[in-house]
Amino acid sequence: MYVVTEVTNERYKEPTGSRLFEVWESGLAKPPSVAIRSLHNVVNRYLRVTRPEAAEDISSGNVDIIVYLARHDNEEIFPQDIEQRFGVTRSTSCRVLGLMEQKGLIAREPVKRDARLKKIVLTDKSRHIAEVLRDNAKNMERILLEGLEDDQIRQFMHVLDVMQTNLVKTGLIGDESRYPSLEIREQDASKSQVPQESQVPQESQVLQKTRDDHVPNNRDARDEYVSHVLRISQEMAIARNRR
Question: Residue 123, SS3?
Answer without folding.
Answer: coil
